[in-house]
Protein: Cobalt transporter CbiM
Organism: Dendronalium phyllosphericum CENA369
Amino acid sequence: MDTVASTGISSFGWRYWIIQPHLAMHIPDGFLNLPVILVTWIIAIGLIALAIRQAQAEYQERTVPLMGVCAAFIFAAQMINFPIPGGTSGHLLGGTLAGALLGPWAGSLVMVAVFIVQGVLFQDGGLTVLGANIFNMGLIGTFGGYYLYRTVRFAIGRDRLSGLVIGAAIAAWTSVVVASIVCALELAISRTVPLAVAFTAMASWHVLIGIGEALITVVALSFIWRTRPELLYDPPRKTKVSTSRPLSRY
């Protein structure tokens, strides 16, 4: 990638446009070196094994159908791209959404299943770097997104819609930006592109892509809050209304 014909385009320029088509963070084969591939695979497999263990211990059978529905929704939603200035586009990642609905463990398993199907059947991301794609977009987005969402929501008010909206928006946007920065670091460590180029190409555009992620996440969770709040992993607590009659004064 370091040898190109001289066309008057600066080194920064052509490297920027090479990395730009992959702004959705689905890293293709050949973009990461072997050490980064191995480390991300080890982390991904370890977290997947832990997620399976925790999910089996914590969740009931009724969670399985919800996991299937959530996976189908996220997979379908990722097929819908929204335009971003500069000739590229973004789509939902869904980590925060999956975490808010299913919790971090089952949510992570859903995201892993989605990315495996995308990589194997639709060639959306390479197979050798599937561990990195799962780590970046699934595990960081789900674990980090869920715990940030939970922290903000509980700080504002667990039983208030405003807490869910603000928490989901902040967590969804942050998870996308952080995942893009981690992806940029992996590309830089692999010497695919310089860190400055990777960081500029990934983080700058994902600041905008994160806004779309936040909007979709907030709309979906707000709808569930109003219609089936019990489906949320941290459902709002019902306010107990006292049925006792007040004492009469004579």
The beta strands are 81-84, 88-91. Residues 1-24, 240-250 have pLDDT under 50 and may be disordered. The two ends are 91 Å apart (CA to CA). The first helix runs from residue 11 to 19.
